[in-house]
Design brief:
Radius of gyration: 14 Å
Strand content: over 45%
Number of helices: 0
Distance between the termini: 40 Å
Amino acid sequence: QVQLVESGGGLVQAGGSLRLSCSASGSIASINAMGWYRQAPGKARELVADMTSGRSTNYADSVKGRFSISRDNAKNTVYLQMDNLKPEDTAAYYCKMTLRRITWGRPDDYWGQGTQVTVSS
């Protein structure tokens, strides 16, 4: 069974920083892409940042210059460094990985359980 476990969320004041992590475990053959999404109450889920296996990155306009995505291939882990947090960053953050299992060659998306980030003003 493939499992993605997130950590690092919390409550911070505006201007503060948090670092989210998401680690995948299980029978994984390869990971094609890793990314972070967020969903605030009453709003649609949106892409925050992602990274392909070739390490090409994409960021939402709202977080450019403040957030940075990185990964550790040996640990099957993706990170999201969030600096200069703003109240509008408050949301549940979800990790997503597009990966291929050893027992099944078709790549599929897997999601973490979500971690809450709350930024107070």
